[in-house]
Amino acid sequence: MLAELERAHLLTLAPPDHGYVQDEDDPYLTEWVVAEPLVLLDRSTDGYGLPTLKMSAEQEVARTRKDLEAPTELAWGIGPRGDSVLFVPEDAARRGLSVEGDGAEAALRAFIVAASAAEGVPDCGTATRVLTTTAVAECVFGTADLPGVPHVETRVDLSAALSDVEDEISERRTLLRSLGLRNAADVRRFKSDHLMQPLLLVTLPPTEADDVRLTDVIEAGRALDIHAVVLGPLSGASEVCLEADGATQAKGTAPSFDGTRAFHMSIATAQEALGVLHQATPAAHPPAEAETQPTVPLQRTAAKIRVFEPAPFQQPPVRIEVFDGLGVVVNGCDISGRFRPRLRTLLSYLALHPAGAPREYLLQEVFALEVTTKTRHKFSTELSEIRRALRAVSPDLTDASFVDDDPRTQRLRFEAAAITTDLELFTRSLAAANTAEPATQVDHLTEAVRLYRGPILPLIEADWAEPIREQQRRRALDAYHRLAQLVEPSDVAYAIHLLENAIDVDRYNIETYQCLMRTQAAVADTTGVRRTFELLSIHMEELDEDVDQGSRDLYNQLVGEELRPAVRTISQQGR
């Protein structure tokens, strides 16, 4: 009881995320860590225990994301023709949205539950964050307490919520100035590594003291992916009137809602749904032993299955993964979804730069922010948030700092005893292979190619990521080549499989195709040589290039066929 009273006293001194409740040593903060559902690691492998590379798929995701005109939105309801109607389209975001009528609370209730359940794309930060007040929570859900609800945060009153939104607007404007862009849409198109997470403010009609502030926030936020919904009348806003069954009538600048039927939900159903979401976010624990299923090899080659045991390196309890996207692995579970986009960016940078970096550099170069007392303070809060999230799922590491802050050099880096990275393990495996005997080299190189699951952080386009991504891609390609060369005398089919995987690492590396054709020819696989050469010609077409003369001569030598100059049109013959 005394602890609860003390907590209530602290909250009266400052709203959440400010003052006392921001202190890392506050004993109640661990209860406020928003926990996404645990995600068991899904490491798809082929019959050899090697990763199934997904570089082309991730690049397609990046290309698709660049074409988006708006972040992933939540559905408002169903249109007259049965089509989905999106919430907060551009025409309704200009002056805010006023929601009234017998069905307003039920519709808003359904929307907030949907926002809480939305996952979004973690690297893109597209899951809408809802910021509301305890008064709205009590009115809509029948209780002011919404503990542990993902993507939904409550503040004690509208004034406190507006302060948070004003801070967010200031920070996003600073980011736009530093990037030389106009609005959030431009950021999505040209600087996808600085995406702005959509923010929706949900409130009751403002008092006279907050009316002007709310109007200013609505005006400033529309270009920054920040919108507002008022449960009740609001002067100048787009008006939406809802019947008890969800039937919607719209006035003003919200014609998209007119004639639609909004999704709606009862208080009991909403509380049950939020309860399920809360139960789906427990503290992490080691997953139960799953039944081992027999491995089904790919039909790429008819080679004998060779599954190697990984090299025995001692690993800390937390592993940050950067190959094929960010992962934060604790006790066999990926908890990366628990971190906001800015925190994921910070984890990504520190994972790629083991020597760390000063706070000022991270603020200016990584987050494109001015170094001020306010930004320093917020950065310290974000470090504390990372530590709290990791401690919440690592009960044995309550004394770990996870991110070292060297007072002498002022550099931040991962605590070596608590955190490792798959990039570090990859580097160590390659280093061990360089000094080992040929027989042992196979094990170290096999572990290296196992760790390389795809390009480093493929969805982050930043100067601090691209050089490292290219460097590690080349090192992975070299590891595949070396491993294929070592195993070829004893297992040609496995060497062929490795070189086929190497094409997935870099589809335009001519040396890989030539090595593969030679190895296929060694087992008299003429058909395989032809397929490999045709694949090379197709990939060269993508670059609008011809197959090089050296590959032509090698193909002619191995197959004994004279190639015509038009060989690059093999794939076009079927068109």
Automatic annotation (TrEMBL):
Keyword match Nucleotide-binding: no
Domain Bacterial transcriptional activator stretches: 421-559
Record carries keyword Transcription: yes
Keywords assigned by UniProt, alphabetized: Transcription, Transcription regulation
GO biological process per UniProt: regulation of DNA-templated transcription
Top-level taxonomic group: Bacteria
Entries under Pfam families matching the protein: BTAD
GO MF, any single term: DNA binding
Alphabetical list of PANTHER family matching this protein: TRANSCRIPTIONAL REGULATOR REDD (PTHR35807:SF1), TRANSCRIPTIONAL REGULATOR REDD-RELATED (PTHR35807)
Protein name: Response regulator receiver and SARP domain protein
Organism: Catenulispora acidiphila (strain DSM 44928 / JCM 14897 / NBRC 102108 / NRRL B-24433 / ID139908)
